[in-house]
Amino acid sequence: SLNFYHLGGKDRRSGLILTIPLCTEQTSMEELSATLDYLLSIPSEKCKARGFTVIVDGRKSQWNIVKTVVLMLQNVIPAEVSLVCVVKPDEFWDKKVTHFCFWKEKDRLGFEVILVSANKLTRYIEPCQLTDEFGGSLVYDHLDWLNKRLVFEKFTKESTSLLDELTVINENEKGSQADKDRSSESNIMPSFDPETVLQTGHELLSELQQRRFNGSEGGGGGTAWSPMDDELLAQPQVMKLLDSLREQYTKYQEVCRQRSKRSQLEEIQTKVMQVVNWLEGPGTEQLRTQWGIGDSIRASQALQQKHEEIESQHSEWFAVYVELNQQIAALLSAGDEEDLMELKGLQQQLSDVCYRQASQLEFRQNVLQSAHEFHMTAQDLSQQLDGLLGMLCADVAPADGAAIQQTLKHLEEKLKSVEGALQSLREKGQVLLDQMSTQTSFSYGKDDVSIENKENIDHIHNVMEDMQLRKQRCEDMVDVRRLKMLQMVQLFKCEEDALQAVEWLGELLDALLKTHIRLGDDSQETKVLLEKHKKFVDVAQSTYDYGRQLLQATVVLCQSLRCTTRSSGDTLPRLNRLWKQFTVTSDERQHRLEMASAFHTAAEKILRESPELAELMVDVEAYEEVETVGKELKEQFFGSPGDMAPSAESIRERMKLVEEKRFLQEEAEQRLDEEALETGPRES
Q1: Are the CB atoms for 5 and 56 separated by under 8 Å?
Q2: How does DSSP classify residue 3?
Q3: 149, 298, 485, 577: least surrounded by Cβ within 10 Å?
């Protein structure tokens, strides 16, 4: 069909010019006939009535082909053809043959056929209506015309089909308004995209209008060129199609919007029911099977893990709920009045089910968390009780009282920690019991909830009672151990104090030996020393008695504690030995002080009397007594090592004074005797 040109030029009768270029190749008459039928269908009937001028370009073809084409024109368009111009080649055909044929067929053909050279074609047709290949000035681009024609025909076909489909869809939608259950979703999509078809039509109309404008403005020497009739006719057709298409497309968009809204509403309703059915069905059934609290940390952790899996499944449906809630809220803000009640009902139903299920999940999570804390506290308390029991069952062999005090402190701390853990267990158990009593309200219609709750409650009470009994047993054992520890503290204290008594007694003995050596310078001082010595002995006696009592208490405590390995050791022999040494030394000291007292008393009696008075003359027995006691004291002290010899210096000094007085007394007595002898002879 590219070889056939439907030109926009016109002949002198304003008829259209049809150019048929022939080539050297064999031309298919069927194709030629079909092409002519197509081209002749384009012009309007008014145009066809003015007739056609056909230019058969036979310059590149043979005469028999030209003859066949001309004869075919008689069969295809005999009434419309007014003139056929056969453009002959430069090599002239056989004149005899050609003239004979055309003259012979002229009346039968019904139109005039002339043979003309290309350069003489202007005799019959104006140059401005001929293309440059025939020596004319008509501007014509066949490929452009062909492309535009294809676009026009494609648009006409698609828009017509689209209009029919949109009309059917819109009419069906009017019928479906009364019956909402009837669905015509299968017919909602047209065969062509309306936007694309409209865009194609607008572009085509714009191009046609531009060509018309250019044609009306153009012009030159001679007759001004005007657009083809088919193009002039195409513009109102395109405009009419576009108007109809826009009208139906607007209605179609409203139909699509309504259907989209209904579809979205139905989809939301379907999804809402899916969420509600799952939460009230499988979701609720999952929670119905989860009622235990476990009997240990591991069991409660397993239940928590199972609950997390259930929560994970619920989270997926809760995410759908959030999305649906947002979609419903968007529809409520922009929805029609008739849909508001239905949307609000769906939203309320969805929210009620989701919030109820979320509350049940949270409650179950809280119960499991409380159960886990309860079991952790119970296990910690059990471990503390086991540790305390281990301490109480172990043998006690403290080294000293400080170690015992440390052990007692450790026991008290352990017992206090156990008491705190037991109190915490009671509190957590009470929280769990309160939750168990509340759990009945989330029974999901289950009949045996009270039975399972009773098992859980009994388990909680049993755990707390068992821990209380174990704690009580440990307290009793702690009391026994505390008593034993206190007895051991007393034992160590008695042993320590007994050793201290031994040290004190040793110090008293040492002081008696080293510092208690003075005998006094006179009888008064000696009496004072004697009194102090008695008090000193009393202190030593009480110290010895105290040590003996402590050692006796040690024996009693060892028997009470069944501590056969412990004894007083060498403490008692040391105590007895020191006491024996002390008593011997004390007696010696007592004896010396008494002798010194007697010596000073006698010496002072002698020394107080005046040697000049006869009536105060001392008896010889008094001198002998002083001499005897002084001699004995001198024998005990004189020549003794250390400080003992100087302590008897006063005795020696007094003995010298007594001897001097005795000597004076003897002289006085001798003098008196002599005087008496002299006086006697005189008297006689």
Answers
A1: no
A2: T
A3: 298
Across the beta sheet with 16-21, the strand order is 5-10, 16-21, 52-57, 81-87, 112-116
- 6-54: pLDDT as tens digits: 555 677 777 788 888 887 665 677 777 777 777 777 777 777 777 778 8
Instruction: Return all residues near 486 (Cβ < 8 A) that are at least 6 apart.
Output: none
Per DSSP, helices labelled H in 226-336 are 229-278, 284-288, 297-334
What does R_g of the chain's alpha carbons equal in angstroms? 75
Burial class (CB in 10 A: 0-12, 13-18, 19+), 316: exposed
Whole-angstrom distance, CA of residue 616 vs CA of residue 610 = 6
Partners of 116 in the β-ladder = 87
Q: Which residues fall within 8 angstroms of residue 488, CB to CB, at 6 or more apart?
A: 396, 398, 401, 404, 557, 561
> Residue 496, CB half-sphere, CA atoms under 13 Å: how many?
10
According to DSSP, residue 460 is labeled H
Question: From its phi and psi, is residue 219 left (phi > 0), alpha (psi between -120 and 50) or beta?
Answer: left
The Cα 28–Cα 22 span in angstroms is 11
Distances (CA, A) of 472 to 79, 386, 409, 415, 438: 131, 13, 19, 10, 32
Regions in the chain scoring below 70 on pLDDT = 1-9, 24-27, 77-79, 90-110, 175-188, 211-233, 335-339, 396-399, 439-452, 563-569, 608-626, 630-652, 680-684
C-alpha count within 13 angstroms, C-beta hemisphere, residue 234: 28
- Calculated CA dihedral for residues 399, 401, 403, 407, nearest 10 degrees: 120
Tokens found for residue 207: 């191009």
Per-residue confidence (pLDDT) for residue 366, from 0 to 100: 92
Quote the CA–CA distance of 8 and 131 in Å, as a whole number. Answer: 10
Contact assessment for residue 537 and residue 586, using Cβ atoms and an 8 Å cutoff: yes
State how far the Cα of 431 lies from the Cα of 464, in Å rounded to an integer: 13
Query: Residue 436 in 3-state DSSP?
Result: helix
Pairing of strands 16-21, 52-57: parallel
- pLDDT for 217 equals 47
Nearest CA-CA partner of 225 in 142, 143, 137, 147: 137
Let me know if 426 is exposed, middle or buried by CB neighbors in 10 A (0-12, 13-18, 19+).
middle
User: CA 378, CA 372: separation in Å to the nearest integer?
Assistant: 10
pLDDT (0 to 100) of residue 452: 67
- For strands 112-116 and 81-87, give the pairing: parallel
Per DSSP, 20 falls in state E
Read off the amino acid at residue 466.
D
Calculate helix-pair angle for 649-683, 620-637, nearest 10 degrees: 160
Contacts of 649 (CB under 8 A, 6+ apart): none
Contact 365, 307 (CB under 8 A): yes
CA pair distance 136, 7, nearest whole angstrom: 12
Q: 511, 503, 485: which is closest to 550 by C-alpha? A: 503
pLDDT value of position 221: 40
Asked whether the beta carbons of 19 and 7 are under 8 A apart, the reply is yes
Instruction: Provide the token pair at 288.
Output: 């119905």
Q: Is residue 84 classed as helix, strand or coil in its secondary structure?
A: strand
279 vs 320: CA distance, rounded Å: 12
Q: Distance between the two ends of the chain, CA-based, in angstroms?
A: 226
Q: Describe the crossing of helices 337-393 and 401-438 by its angle, rounded to 10 degrees.
A: 150
Structure tokens at 153: 């025909």
